[in-house]
UniProtKB/TrEMBL annotation:
Keyword entries, A-Z: 4Fe-4S, DNA damage, DNA repair, Hydrolase, Iron, Iron-sulfur, Metal-binding
Annotated ranges, domain Uracil-DNA glycosylase-like: 304-459
Keyword Iron included in the entry's annotation: yes
Domain of life from the UniProt record: Bacteria
Family note: Belongs to the uracil-DNA glycosylase (UDG) superfamily. Type 4 (UDGa) family.
Entry-linked InterPro entries: DNA_repair_put (IPR023875), DUF4130 (IPR025404), UDG_Type-4/5 (IPR051536), Ura-DNA_glyco_family4 (IPR005273), Uracil-DNA_glycosylase-like (IPR005122), Uracil-DNA_glycosylase-like_sf (IPR036895)
Protein name as annotated: Type-4 uracil-DNA glycosylase
Lineage, top ranks: Bacteria, Pseudomonadati, Pseudomonadota, Gammaproteobacteria, Lysobacterales
Length: 471
């Protein structure tokens, strides 16, 4: 069987199905690709061997996925191995692909893994160079893949660089994107691709400056960036020198005094005490510049309250979380979603309420790339209390719903015990009514069984607000 393109699934599949339908056994088929066909004996174009009718039927979808990858492998045995697998699948071994110890299956899985690895490397190590063309600039890259992966990887570059015209050249194929259509062509030579361009010096400077000698692991680096790719990577010329000087650079880093991180956009100094005049908008601006406690330093921004200035209800939480810190808005993370669900269940409109927190900055402990919530201490709570009091003076709400112990203590007194006082109204000195209940984050920390009991109780507490508004 002669194949014009050894990596084309549709072409191989058409021939394989025809052979299967004719009952031609795998050992009677010789596969040849392109110029290799000239090595066939003179009678190779003769009729197929006369065989008993074969079995042609559907195959598992995972076989087609496997075949797509295996066909891109450089090994000339790939077509024969795939046809043996197809023959066996069609002749009753329906679970064949799950037998990973089978010789054919094991070989195909290794080949597919090698192709997948090569696709990943191509995405990582292709380097485009700018070329001045008659119709504008074109970006050209030269790459030498171990396997024929360009047809499978080219759509990734179309999505990634849809707005520019580019070509990727390899010894076996080329891919070209003109901004509208992707075309595949014949292979090229290294001399067909451009040499260095004006940006490579800048790229090497950047690479050298982000190199961290303290994290250097040569074996791991070579495993992820095999040496065979280095000759086409402009930054690779720096690697031997960076490795050689790593120990000395690391020692100088250890001996250097610590640096103090600097905010990219330092906020201007401002009063830590809110002004007696001005509305909520003025208060929000002043709070953004508060430096009364150290919480402002690691936080992204102040998370001030939001809602109508004439709101009759204030929903008071404890302190912002990770998502609130990033968004600059209260109750937008998982706790806020749980609160919204409870309000919706009761037919209450959050948009008619003023939502805020007792503490206006996110306090956290770093855990790798994560930021874990940490409770603000008494000093930090006291520093933020003036902003809460200023909000309440301007709002003069009729009802305050305290979500969590910190909020309840800020309104009802530091000795209040939340679980004893929850679920009933408390009259404040100015006539405002305050209701204490648990914070939604408390529910998130419970097991599924515990939450089934705690959720109705939380909704019952908020139902007191529903009845108060309806009265």
């Amino acid at each position: 069987m002669r194949l014009a393109d050894g990596a084309d699934l549709a072409e191989w599949r058409g021939h394989a199905r025809a052979l299967l339908a004719e009952g031609v056994a795998p050992e009677q088929v010789q596969w040849q690709v392109g110029e290799q066909a000239g090595l066939l004996p003179a009678n190779a174009d003769g009729p197929m061997p006369s065989m008993a009718a074969g079995v042609a039927g559907s195959v598992p979808r995972e076989f087609l996925v496997l075949a797509t990858r295996v066909l891109a492998h450089a090994d000339a045995r790939r077509h024969a191995v795939l046809y043996r697998l197809l023959w066996r699948l069609a002749h009753g071994e329906r679970a064949l692909l799950r037998i990973v110890t089978d010789d054919d299956v094991a070989w195909a899985l290794r080949a597919a893994k090698a192709v997948s690895r090569e696709k990943h490397k191509m995405k990582a190590f292709v380097r485009f160079r700018e070329v001045q063309g008659a119709q504008g600039n074109v970006f050209v890259a030269w790459f030498e893949p171990e396997h024929d992966v360009l047809p499978q990887v080219a759509p990734f570059f179309v999505r990634r660089f849809a707005g520019m015209r580019w070509s990727i050249l390899t010894p076996t194929r080329s891919a070209h994107w003109d901004g509208q259509a992707l075309t595949l062509g014949a292979g090229a030579r290294r001399t067909d691709a451009p040499g260095a361009d004006a940006l490579e010096d800048l790229w090497r400077t950047y690479f050298a400056n982000i190199f961290n000698p303290a994290r250097l692991k040569v074996d791991a680096m070579v495993k992820e960036m095999p040496v065979r790719y280095w000759k086409n990577l402009p930054e690779a010329t720096l690697i031997p020198g960076l490795i050689r000087d790593a120990s000395a650079r690391m020692e100088s880093m250890v001996q250097a005094p610590p640096t103090v991180p600097r905010k990219a956009f330092p906020a201007p100094a401002a009063r830590a005490v809110p002004a007696a005049t001005g509305g909520l908008d003025v208060l929000r601006v002043e709070a953004a510049a508060c430096r009364a406690c150290p919480l402002w330093q690691p936080a992204t921004q102040t998370v001030f309250g939001e809602g109508p200035a004439d709101a009759r209800v204030v929903l008071l939480g404890e302190q912002p979380g990770d998502q609130e810190d990033l968004a600059g808005r209260p109750f937008v993370g998982p706790s806020g979603q749980l609160l919204d669900r409870a309000l919706k269940e009761l037919g209450l409109d959050r948009r008619a309420m003023y939502v805020t927190n007792t503490v206006k900055h996110f306090k956290f402990e770093p855990r790798g790339k994560r930021r874990l919530h940490a409770r603000a201490n008494a000093t930090e709570q006291a520093a933020c209390r003036r902003w809460l009091e200023a909000e309440l003076i301007r709002l003069r709400p009729r009802w305050i719903v305290c979500l969590g112990a910190m909020a309840a203590q800020a309104i009802l007194g530091k000795d209040v015990r939340l679980l004893e006082e929850r679920g009933r109204w408390h009259a404040l000195g100015d006539g405002t009514q305050a209701l204490a209940t648990v914070h939604p984050s408390y529910l998130l920390r419970l097991t599924a069984g515990e939450r089934e009991v705690a959720w109705p109780a939380f909704v019952r507490d908020l139902a007191l607000l529903q009845r108060a508004l309806a009265a």
